[in-house]
Design a protein that fits this description.
Two copies of one chain form a homodimer. Chain A is of the alpha/beta class. Chain A has twelve helices and twelve strands. In chain A, helix 5 links the parallel strand 1 and strand 2. At the A-B interface, helix 4, helix 5, strand 2, helix 6 and helix 11 of A face helix 4, helix 5, strand 2, helix 6 and helix 11 of B. Chain A binds a DNA duplex through helix 2 and helix 4.
DNA sequence: TTGTACGCGTTATCAG
DNA sequence: CTGATAACGCGTACAA
């Protein structure tokens, strides 16, 4: 008996409610939104009835009328990366507390795709946009054009003057080198992220600056590039172990790459930290596991997401909110992948 | 100079385009949607102009008019769990290829929250709903009422007659025991998931059935319950190691719990697999890492997401599509956490 | 305080 | 093939 006698399953709209109650649509609307200009008695009566019949306003129509959708788009590289998953979870939880929903997009680190997503955000009238992904300068122009609150997370964009929260990635790269220096390392390699990632680039700059400050030489052949995945770290290790001249330490753009890299090294008999020290970035949960125990640099995901949401809500509530840039301090977590040389 | 001379930043709407071109809104709409009933010449002209001025239709208005939003809601427990993150990523990629966007919700395994989310889906006119989460029977009623395509992933719901794709979780639990039996184990414990998770329950049933079939006794004191998180596995291990009488093998509801559990065991000097064999479920990427190398049961995430999307698209395209239930076969992946007793 | 009428941007129906 | 116009459901000035 699919769809039996009672076809009355059709959802009520505000006009139905108004008719059934013998009042006007405006009154229903006012009762619904807590708008002033309605007697307490009528409001109570309407709300009670609404609750009874289970009426809920159509969000689409509300949004079309108001010109704003209570959805915030979250664009990031790949949610399978625990760092992003943690950010996603926190941001989603915090925003939902303020009545916003989150639309998730994985750009897969593809610039073209990302630009397309921003365009999509525009035609969708999202309430706001949170970007956590690599990008090029052409993005800036499109963002300025966007006319909706934007928050950049852990990324710098040239000429972008909106709000952002990020780790001091330069410092992060710098203290990674410092830690290794103190352990006596002088030949230090680097695995970077995508060349368009400002976070990766800044870490690299910090690394180069530290090398330079302490008179250490830089070797192009000890540079690799990763796309932040475990598998890639593993592949890089294969190449790495076959090199005749190896550095005694590697700084690696993220924990996931480092974990894959270590896996590959171990498989080829390279012991960590006896033969090679490793420092990476993120401090994802699994980096503390027995058998992994990465020395890594914490990005303070919790603070990052809190600030990101706070910045977004500020812009959402006041039109005239001036942009803020919040910079978090990196924290070195020493575990067991670094040792004196 | 915020908002300089050119305030003309306002987005064009279909009426603007029509006027500028001296045609009717209907023609623009037809050109846009590939609707028949317009000459090729006019269509080309309109499309060219639209492309030039960069006009894009307002999706909200489209949806309100059509009564359907091209967004599919994805409700799951916690995206920080790699199993869910993988599903999310795949589902999002596949659906976006068909022009749908994905709205992500973390129910945090909370039934109340989940029901609220389903209600939200209703008032939002989503195109469809994909559910990957634990739930109780009261959910079914609400789903039937929903009047939008629903696909259940890896969950069974009493009296639910919609489409679903799931692992044969009973068999999964059964073959976990079989594997341990072949290695000579007879005292086998079990760490389950949330009591409302049908996946966990089915695995447990398979486990009990296998024990019973082979005359092994069941011991209540070797049962634990996890919320699928690493930390929880770790906590359980603390309790486990202090037990005077231990089983020689444990079956654990998911890889994450198993990883935390192993971590805790190792920390207390319990060697795996020498002192304790472990079989878990999921086969997430990190379970194959050196130093972890879990013996686990693969759920075939890729197939699961492909089927989920296919089932959704089928329902979306044809009103009269009858529900399908797809059952995937579990695959045992033997690594290094199981050994002969 | 309450109700009326119009606008939001698009699609769909029906004339021409 | 093309164009005017009525929905879609709700918010909101404006009028009563």
């Amino acid at each position: 008996m699919r769809r039996g006698i009672e076809m009355k399953n059709k959802k009520y709209n505000i006009s139905d409610i108004a008719k059934m109650l013998g009042v006007s649509e405006s009154s229903v609307s006012r009762a619904l939104n807590g708008t002033p200009g309605i007697s307490d008695a009528l409001r109570a009566k309407i709300l009670a009835f609404i609750d009874e019949v289970g009426y809920r306003p159509n969000t689409l129509a509300q949004s079309l009328s108001k010109g704003r959708l209570n959805i915030i788009a979250l664009i990031l590289g790949d949610v399978r990366n625990p760092f992003y998953a943690d950010l996603t979870f926190d941001i989603q939880r915090l925003l939902s507390e303020s009545g916003y929903m989150v639309m998730l997009f994985n750009s897969e680190y593809d610039m073209t795709r990302e630009l397309e997503l921003i365009r999509l955000a525009e035609q969708f009238n999202f309430a706001g946009l949170i970007l956590i992904t690599a990008k090029e300068s052409s993005t800036t122009a499109r963002l300025q054009h966007l006319d909706m609150p934007v928050v950049l997370v852990n990324r710098i964009l040239p000429h972008f003057d909106g709000s952002s929260v990020l780790l001091d990635n330069f410092k992060a790269g710098y203290i990674a080198v410092m830690h290794l220096l103190e352990l006596g390392h002088s030949k230090i390699g680097f695995i970077s992220g995508h060349s368009v990632s400002s976070a990766s680039n800044q870490r690299y700059e910090g690394y180069r600056q530290a090398l330079s400050n302490f008179g250490l030489s830089f070797h192009e052949e000890h540079m690799y590039e990763s796309d932040l995945k475990i598998e890639t770290g593993y592949q890089i290790a294969k190449d790495f172990v076959s090199q005749p001249e190896k550095p005694s330490a590697m700084i690696i753009v993220n924990d996931l790459t480092a974990i894959g890299f270590m896996d590959g090294c171990k498989q080829h008999g390279l012991c960590i930290p006896q033969n090679l020290s490793i420092v990476s970035f993120d401090n994802i949960r699994m980096s503390s596991l027995l058998g992994i125990e990465l020395t890594t640099i914490d990005q303070h995901v919790d603070q990052m997401s809190e600030h990101a949401v706070a910045l977004m809500l500020k812009q959402l509530s006041s039109e005239t909110h001036r942009p803020e840039r919040i910079v978090l301090d990196p924290t070195l977590i020493v575990r067991k992948t670094t040792a004196p040389i």
